[in-house]
Amino acid sequence: QVQLVESGGGLMQAGGSLRLSCAASGRTFSTVSMAWFRQAPEKEREFVTAITWSGGITYYRDSVKGRFTISRDNAKNTVYLQMNSLKPEDTAVYYCAAGRGSIQTIRQLSSYDYWGQGTQVTVSS
């Protein structure tokens, strides 16, 4: 069992930056990858980015490439999301997730077994 706690969300003007953190505890030894998803009101939860825990291989949705960076600190069991050049369309609740599914399906919601409670990111124009 893994517990995830997100932090770092808030209000930001377009063009600004935020850094989200996700601290993991519990049976983290079984974790293959960690990811960030986001969900805006009345919209489906969508993949943002993911990282493999051991190798540090990263994956991004096209709309955040060059603006967002995912990283991890294995010693602290923490994953980060650095968000630069924020746009109003980035506004959503951001959720971190941990899973042990195949890397071939790393972008899929169903690959993740554990979820944080979410942190709100609001970007104004």
Short description:
This protein is mainly β. Helix content is 0%, strand content 51%.
Could you characterize the architecture of this molecule?
With 125 residues, the protein is an all-beta fold. The chain has no helices and eleven strands. The model has no long low-confidence stretch (mean pLDDT 95).
Give the key terms.
125 residues, seven-stranded mixed β-sheet, 51% strand, globular
Provide mean pLDDT, rounded: 95
Uncertain segments are: none
Query: How many DSSP H or I helices?
Result: 0
Beta strand count = 11
**Rg on CA atoms, Å:** 13 Å
> What characteristic shape results from the CA principal axes?
globular
Largest sheet: 7 strands, mixed
Strand and helix order: EEEEEEEEEEE
Beta-strand proportion: over 45%
From the helix content, strand content and strand pairing, which structural class follows? mainly beta
Task: Please specify the SSE layout and strand pairing.
Layout: E1 2-7, E2 10-13, E3 18-26, E4 33-39, E5 46-52, E6 58-60, E7 68-73, E8 78-83, E9 92-99, E10 114-115, E11 119-124
Parallel strand pairs: 2-11
Antiparallel strand pairs: 1-3, 3-8, 4-5, 4-9, 5-6, 7-8, 9-10, 9-11
